[in-house]
TrEMBL record:
It comes from the Bacteria. The keyword Transferase does not apply. This is Rhamnose:proton symporter. InterPro entries: L-rhamnose-proton_sym_RhaT.
Length: 343
């Protein structure tokens, strides 16, 4: 039953991630980096501190006793994740959201799932377990489903471009390397959480229970915030946009601040519920990353359908999209069953 509860919490977290970009549509008069830095401050700096303080008993004592090396590894891997997120955003300019998502998230799904047991030297034990074929099959099927979602998205972009008579600036030569960088470095976030587990173990001894993972975000998320901060400050200096935080003609500043905060809240929600799901996955807790990534793509596609983002697409595009969603559901079922067998 704990595995089923874990899957539920992963679904809640993935829902937050799938919807976190929606508030951006209401933001006006701000450069992208103005909005992005504010939401990052909420998601990667403010909320990790507040939530850890609220949910980790004797937090100061936990931090004193936790291994310094684990905190450092989690922080620096989080910084790499921040670079991956920046590369993701830039790649969208050249190859579109759908291909960026498919390539980057597909790589992150596979690499971020297998890297922790490989580095710990237990991948062989994992592969010999009863549920291993289902887990590996689920990860592989998830990668196929993500790729199909990317294909559907590319067809969608072509459908819309044909109707607008505006093909856009597509450059695979520029976008593909950025997608590869984004996928590899984004996978390191899952590894960052894995390397921070000794800190969570100390928190568990002090009674943190299922909330133990919240202490890791103090390092993984703040690492990501540092790299995001540096990049956004560079853009502010280059484009002279610091004044937008106080004065921005043609914008509703209170609404902009509210939407940035809501984005940060939704994005942090995925981490919070990811932690609640992760501790319930038992022996194969490393598979949490694959489950989260696959659910994120599935629920993003479903949210797009509900918000009628695909209403102008042709039959071929919709067939590929529905096929992708069926494959992703099958992948989640395989991963769930594999975890259940060895729970």
């Amino acid at each position: 039953m704990e595995v089923i509860n874990g899957i539920f919490f992963h679904a809640v977290g993935a829902s937050g991630a799938a919807l976190c970009y929606t508030p951006q549509k209401k933001v006006s008069g701000w450069a992208w980096h103005t909005y992005w830095l504010l939401q990052a401050a909420v998601c990667w700096l403010l909320l990790p501190i507040v939530v850890a303080w609220l949910t980790i008993p004797h937090l100061s004592q936990v931090l004193q006793e936790a291994p310094t090396s684990a905190m450092q590894r989690s922080f620096f891997l989080g910084m790499a994740y921040g670079v991956g997120g920046t590369a993701f955003g830039i790649a969208i300019r050249y190859v579109g959201f759908s291909l960026t998502y498919a390539i980057s998230v597909g790589i992150s799904c596979v690499l971020g799932t297998l890297l922790p047991p490989l580095v710990r030297g237990v991948l062989g034990d994992v592969l010999s377990a009863t549920g291993a074929p289902y887990l590996i099959g689920g990860v592989a099927l998830g990668a196929v489903g993500i790729a199909l979602c990317g294909l559907a998205g590319r067809y969608k972009e072509k459908d819309l471009a044909a109707q607008d008579n505006n093909p856009g600036a597509f450059s695979l030569a520029k976008g593909l390397p950025l997608c590869l960088i984004a996928g590899i470095l984004s996978a390191l976030y899952g590894f960052s959480l894995d390397q921070g587990q000794p800190v969570a173990d100390v928190a568990a001894r002090y009674g943190a229970g299922h909330f133990q993972g919240n202490v890791i975000y103090l390092f993984a998320n703040t690492g990501a915030f540092v790299t995001t901060l540096l990049y956004c400050l560079y853009l502010h200096l280059k484009q002279k946009t610091f004044a937008q935080y106080a004065i921005s003609p043609g914008s509703n500043l209170p609404l902009n601040y509210a939407m940035a905060a809501l984005t940060g809240l939704l994005w942090y929600g995925q981490f919070f519920f990811y932690g609640l799901g992760h501790v319930r996955m038992g022996q194969f807790s490393f598979s949490s990353w694959a489950i989260h990534m696959i659910m994120l793509v599935l629920l993003s596609a479903l949210a797009g359908l509900i918000m009628r983002e695909w209403k102008l697409c042709g039959p071929r595009t919709m067939r590929v999209l529905w096929s992708a969603m069926v494959v992703l559901v099958a992948a989640i079922l395989l991963l769930t069953y594999g975890n259940y067998l060895d729970a």
